[in-house]
Predict the structure.
Amino acid sequence: MEILDQISEALQKGKAKDVKQMVQDALDQGVSASDVLNKGLLVGMGIIGGKFKNNEVYVPDVLIAARAMKAGTEILKPLLATQGVKAIGKVLIGTVKGDLHDIGKNLVAMMMEGKGLEVVDVGTDVPADTFIQKAIENDVRVICCSALLTTTMGEMKNVVEAAKAAGVRDRFIIMVGGAPVNETFCKSIGADLYTPDAASAADAAFAAIKARA
Ligand code: B1M
């Protein structure tokens, strides 16, 4: 669909204002929010990612593309998240220490809200102890850790260890995810759940909370 290609193109050029307008136009034309996300915004971000890897574009280009992505997802947020649903449980989400990537984390948070979960977002570059301290303070059931770098995914083990050290490991379901993470890694660090994408993360958190209720 032409509008989705245009969204992808504008995102790659970092044209946040255009992306915002085109996302709205696509929705007005009857394109579903998930198609705008998966076939427009995420396609553009994937292309930028490939170019970044091949040194065809650099950090500033990726940053402005990320800003355009954010502008687009802001428009989609109310459509991906169900309005006015009573929260069935609370989750805490953050990107681990040393890692500033937040687009995937924000999508996971959005999808979880869409499932009727209350989300406490502690942001990026979050130390292990902070995950645990905030989880206790906010009395959440699930702790969600996101990492995009092979150099930071090890921080997830520190979150599990920090929960053990604080004597609260049994209180929380610890979920991990992000591009370099997989099921084997999840098991190896003693976390509870791994999911590959935002939608399955929301489903898994919902199911885990229901099962423990
Ligand atoms: Co960075 N970066 N980056 N970057 N960046 C990657 C991740 C990289 C793969 C690019 C590459 O080389 N091809 C590479 C990592 C290599 C590696 O470790 N294997 C990389 C690098 C190297 C770096 C720097 C070190 C570059 C440098 O400075 N030389 C630097 C590190 C900074 C830091 O964090 N300390 C850096 C910086 C940046 C920017 C700041 C410029 C920017 C981030 C902006 C922002 O997030 N606000 C950026 C971006 C945008 C990317 C790419 C291009 C896109 C990431 C993204 O947002 N994808 C990325 C290349 C790529 O992925 N193709 C790259 C879209 C997003 C929706 O996907 O986050 O994977 P993702 O989330 C998915 C799933 O993974 C999953 O659900 C989401 C949606 O379905 N998921 C979960 C995520 N969290 C989950 C949690 C869950 C469950 C599922 O449960 C809890």
